[in-house]
Specification:
mainly alpha, about 65% helix, Arc Repressor Mutant, subunit A, three-stranded antiparallel beta sheet
């Protein structure tokens, strides 16, 4: 198999594996890896801050339907509220609940522990090199996406 194709498969496999580990690790908090990603983004704004759903969708590169499903499941768990904009009924804003705000520290501590374990045998230079290489890959993917006219996300 061609090396580049093999690396692509390894990246996909690694992404899937990290998601499985995260889902298992965050199970006691009743949050999936995808939900944690959304909550982390929304939580950066702070307690009481409204975050437009479109901003979450664009920043996390999620399809509208995927994000709707995630948000609805998190709303059922009382992790966030979805508030319709008063001026434009087409716009939904997201806000974290008190429950999420109180769990925030635990979320971030668990994520930090997970990250430390995943990178436990990497030195700082290797992490910087990996980050640089991943950024180059992302730029190439973004350019290819633009070239083929895929603007759905």
């Amino acid at each position: 198999m061609e090396t580049k194709s093999y690396v692509m498969l390894k990246l996909k496999f690694l992404n899937d594996r990290i998601s499985l580990v995260m889902n298992s690790y965050f199970k006691d908090l009743n949050v999936t890896a995808s939900q944690m990603r959304v909550l982390s983004f929304i939580s950066r704004k702070g307690k009481g801050e409204l975050v437009p759903q479109k901003e979450v969708q664009k920043s996390l590169n999620l399809k509208h339907s995927t994000l709707n499903g995630l948000l609805n499941r998190m709303k059922e768990k009382d992790l966030l509220d979805i508030i319709q904009d008063q001026d434009d009924k087409r716009v939904n804003n997201i806000i974290i609940t008190d429950k999420t705000f109180l769990l925030r520290k635990e979320f971030f501590e668990k994520r930090k522990t997970l990250t430390e374990n995943i990178f436990n045998n990497f030195n700082e230079e290797e992490i910087i090199i990996l980050d640089t290489l991943l950024n180059k890959l992302r730029e190439n993917v973004d350019k290819f996406k633009d070239d083929i006219g895929d603007d759905k996300r």
